[in-house]
Amino acid sequence: MDARNGIGGSLTGLDLRAEIDRLRKERNAVILAHYYQKPEIQDIADFVGDSLDLSRKAQATDADVIAFCGVKFMAETAKILSPDKIVVLPDLKAGCSLEDSCPPDKFAAFRAAHPDHIALTYINCSTEVKALSDVIVTSSSAEKILAQIPPEQKIIFGPDKNLGGYLARKTGREMLLWPGVCIVHEAFSETELLKLQLEHPGAPIAAHPECPPYILDHADYVGSTSGILAFAAAMPGDTLIVATEPHIIHQMEKADPSKRFIGAPGADGNCNCNICPYMALNTMEKLYLALRDLEPRIEIEEGLRLEAKKSLDAMMRMAGATVGQGDLGPVRVSGD
Q: Residues 23-39: pLDDT tens digits?
């Protein structure tokens, strides 16, 4: 039996929530959960939020250990910002299709082929690609940062062509786009979305800018995960169609149980193809084991970490107080 896959006999009968709470205290650990995590993981976390928000929150704590329930590039970002803290990820196989679409060697060659361009890179990328970039952006800070770059400066935007294309259309700024996509946001069907609109006339659509244009064209609001949560809280109606990973709906329902939140459908109208398969690899069992064993651990060579941190620091300088915070910032859940 493989205990790390949550099926080992050694975990049978354990009160996982109680054990995780015990280990959190013993390890002086902070537990972070992205909005796309399963509800039970969100509910046990100290902070729930966007990836960079979470890393900055953890950086500000006196925790010795960061348990990041998200995907690998998020845990790496936490390590870049908190090199003296132990950072664990419940499952090292929790990757990202955007990161996979942009191998560092190919990105380096692409940059070398366009030496007059600077690289504006979405945070959904590896540490190595961050080190090859000039400025990292989040979905909430990208437009503000883009506005500060002289119009004559040529720009490579990667790895998400949908986010880059959305920014280009909105700002009129031409950019050379790396051809990466998020498999979750590519899964939404325009036809099924239109059917859903007919079933719920008047219900607005909130979409993440990682969605393709044929989804964004129907959206009443386009923004980061934190921004979508803010829109859900402020909208006057009682029904919202949500075009991003559906586990974000858990926070919406907790904030306002009187409203109805409907996940945008995939190709056949009711598939689970818009659930991130990488985020789903994290489980309560694996979180318990990560805290117990302090493994799998994120390690980054110091020279690489410092190179990657330069592009993150550039973002923080250019975005100021708004960096990575969307419209809400992380939601504190522990002790609520």
A: 999 999 999 999 999 99
- 131 within 8 A of 304, measured Cβ to Cβ: yes
Per-residue buried b or exposed e for 172-191, using 16+ beta carbons within 10 Å of the residue's own CB = ebebebbebbbbbbbbbbee
CA distance 89 to 65: 11
Q: What is the DSSP code string of 198-230?
A: HHSTT--EEE-TTS-HHHHTT-SEE--HHHHHH
pLDDT digits (tens, 9 = 90+) for 72-115: 999 999 999 999 999 999 999 999 999 999 999 999 999 999 99
Least Cα distance to 73 among 129, 141, 32, 30 occurs for 129
CA within 13 Å, CB half, 281: 15
DSSP 9: G
Q: Which residues, 6+ apart, have CB-to-CB distance to 50 below 8 Å?
A: 34, 35, 138, 140, 224, 225, 226, 324, 325, 326, 330
pTM: 0.90
What letters, b where the CB count within 10 A reaches 16 and e where it falls short, cover 234-250?
Answer: ebeeeebbbbbbbbbbb
Joined together, the tokens standing for residue 196 give: 């859903």
Nearest Cα to 246, choosing from 33, 31, 32, 39? 39
Q: Residue 312's closest CA among 136, 142, 148, 147? A: 136
| Residue 316: how many other CB atoms lie within 10 Å | 18
- The Cα–Cα gap between 5 and 11 comes to 10
User: In 3D, which of 245, 311, 309, 310 has the Cα closest to residue 272?
Assistant: 245
CA-CA distance, 198 to 178, in Å (whole number)? 35
Query: CB–CB of 30/61 below 8 Å?
Result: yes
